[in-house]
Amino acid sequence: MILSRNELRLDDGSALSECPRSRFLLDTDYISEEEKHRVELMLAFLTEESKQAAASTAPTSEEDLCPICYAHPISAIFKPCSHKSCKACINQHLMNNKDCFFCKATITGVEDYSKPASS
């Protein structure tokens, strides 16, 4: 709901019309109706996406965290040994070393890992 300038007061009691930047808050003549509509659609989309992301983000248990950095969830599995870490740790490690962190087997590949759904 947009109020007229004489209906708005700032915390210090001054009228909004006395504030030099107030015209930018209420003067929308330079914005087309199409632009306003597109912004409203984008805000609605982002709000919905934010709600869905928050709902789908389950708290991560300690056992789901990378055993190397404890900062990111496990997201990579090493071949052939099947040990796991986050992609950030294995990518950094593979720059200088081709051996598994844990068993020292030569890593021949890294695959994406996602935790199996609980039954």
Automatic annotation (TrEMBL):
<dbReference type="GO" id="GO:0005737">
    <property type="term" value="C:cytoplasm"/>
</dbReference>
<keyword id="KW-0808">Transferase</keyword>
<dbReference type="InterPro" id="IPR001841">
    <property type="entry name" value="Znf_RING"/>
</dbReference>
<feature type="domain" description="RING-type">
    <location>
        <begin position="66"/>
        <end position="104"/>
    </location>
</feature>
<dbReference type="InterPro" id="IPR045129">
    <property type="entry name" value="RNF123/RKP/RSPRY1"/>
</dbReference>
<keyword id="KW-0863">Zinc-finger</keyword>
<dbReference type="GO" id="GO:0061630">
    <property type="term" value="F:ubiquitin protein ligase activity"/>
</dbReference>
<keyword id="KW-0833">Ubl conjugation pathway</keyword>
<dbReference type="GO" id="GO:0051603">
    <property type="term" value="P:proteolysis involved in protein catabolic process"/>
</dbReference>
<protein>
    <recommendedName>
        <fullName>RING-type E3 ubiquitin transferase</fullName>
        <ecNumber>2.3.2.27</ecNumber>
    </recommendedName>
</protein>
<dbReference type="GO" id="GO:0016567">
    <property type="term" value="P:protein ubiquitination"/>
</dbReference>
<dbReference type="GO" id="GO:0008270">
    <property type="term" value="F:zinc ion binding"/>
</dbReference>
<keyword id="KW-0479">Metal-binding</keyword>
<keyword id="KW-0862">Zinc</keyword>
<dbReference type="InterPro" id="IPR013083">
    <property type="entry name" value="Znf_RING/FYVE/PHD"/>
</dbReference>
<dbReference type="Pfam" id="PF13920">
    <property type="entry name" value="zf-C3HC4_3"/>
</dbReference>
